[in-house]
Amino acid sequence: MNPHADQDESPIEAKLSASPSAAGDVPVPPSPAATPPFQQRRLLQSRGAVLATLFLVTGALGIPLLWMNKAFSNVERYFWALIVSLYTALLIYAAWQICRWSYHQIVG
């Protein structure tokens, strides 16, 4: 322990440099989800970005993103939702087959 340290203060105590006088004095920053920047809004409405997200990242979990996008017509939304659901089912089946094959390789 440091012999020069004050005995009344703990090294892990934190003190406020200035306390606000009222609750209205503390500014509350807006939530990033509440007001996305222009770039994010434009990206969310991009057809390519939505399709890339569906096929490369989220699979069927990204279908709500597809339905929120105004760039797709209802027919396209149904089509892409069906394709992404089938694609996701195929990936799950492939993963199951790989696990099954691996198990049989290990067991003998």
Automatic annotation (TrEMBL):
Q: Which domain of life is it from?
A: Bacteria
What keywords sit in the KW lines? Membrane, Transmembrane, Transmembrane helix
Query: Where are the bilayer-spanning segments?
Result: 48-67, 79-96
Q: Where is this region: Disordered?
A: 1-35
- Protein name per the record: Uncharacterized protein
List the source organism: Novipirellula galeiformis
